[in-house]
């Protein structure tokens, strides 16, 4: 192998962060990158043949076509999780799905990922392609299965994931959850509305200026 796998992936990631939106743009960015940066990312620059030192567009294309994206996500998530510094107390993870801008399948379908993101550091500790023949609900458990320990973790999600099976799964892994109840769970919503909310003392209130949102906790 002329180029280490980690170096090719790191260069590709840097190019995308710098604005590259195609494999050709990635290869052009790599070709113009400073030698110091190439060396720091694991590329050895040959002074006699410098143009052959970095991976060409065909090399980058072959690597990305053969890489197992889910395995790469798990590896990166595990690496990030191992470098987290916990300040104590409960850890909080947000599970949410997003369609990627600028990324699409061969038939034009946008790539939709379900991710678990750390509330404090903003690190994506796990993510998974939802796929064409399934949805976010069915990928909830497989996504969190990739995280080795959820003990003492508070998992938050939107109303789509207010599911009995999700709650049972999280409690089975010694985790906690905060869910949003809307009309998609009519029975639960009716039960909650019947509670004596006026009798519950207000213990906390947070106001934000950007979204005009008010959060209250009893």
Tell me the fraction of residues in β-strands, as a range: 15-25%
What is the helix tally?
8
**Main beta-sheet annotation:** 5 strands, mixed
Q: How much helical structure, as a percent, in the residues? A: 25-40%
Structural class: alpha/beta
N-to-C span = 60 Å
Number of strands: 7
Strand order, sheet with most strands: 3-2-1-4-5
State the order of secondary-structure elements, H for helix, E for strand: HHHHHEEEHEHEHEE
Report on this model:
Helix 1 crosses helix 2. It is built from eight helices and seven strands. With 218 residues, the protein is an alpha/beta fold. The strands form two sheets. Strands 3-2-1-4-5 form a five-stranded mixed β-sheet.
Keyword list:
alpha/beta; 218 residues; two-stranded antiparallel ribbon; elongated; 36% helix; 21% strand; five-stranded mixed beta sheet; single chain
Give a concise summary.
By secondary structure, the chain is an alpha/beta fold. Helices cover 36% and strands 21% of the residues.
């Amino acid at each position: 192998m002329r180029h280490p796998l980690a170096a090719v992936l790191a260069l590709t990631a840097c190019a995308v962060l710098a604005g590259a939106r195609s494999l050709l743009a990635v290869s052009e960015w790599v070709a113009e990158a400073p030698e110091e940066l190439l060396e720091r990312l694991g590329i050895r620059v040959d002074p006699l043949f410098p143009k052959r030192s970095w991976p060409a567009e065909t090399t980058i294309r072959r690597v990305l076509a053969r890489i197992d994206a889910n395995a790469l996500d798990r590896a990166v998530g595990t690496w990030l999780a191992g470098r987290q510094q916990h300040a104590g107390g409960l850890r909080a993870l947000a599970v949410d799905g997003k369609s990627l801008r600028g990324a699409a399948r061969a038939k034009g379908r946008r790539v939709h990922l379900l991710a678990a993101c750390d509330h404090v550091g903003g690190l994506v500790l796990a993510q998974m392609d939802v796929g064409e023949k399934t949805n976010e609900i069915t990928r909830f458990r497989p996504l969190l299965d990739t995280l080795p320990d959820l003990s003492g973790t508070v998992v938050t999600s939107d109303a789509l994931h207010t599911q009995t099976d999700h709650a049972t799964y999280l409690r089975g892994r010694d985790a906690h959850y905060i869910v949003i109840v809307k009309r998609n769970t009519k029975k639960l919503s009716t039960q909650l509305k019947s509670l004596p909310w006026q009798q519950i003392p207000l213990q906390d209130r947070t106001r934000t200026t950007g979204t005009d949102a008010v959060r209250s906790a009893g």
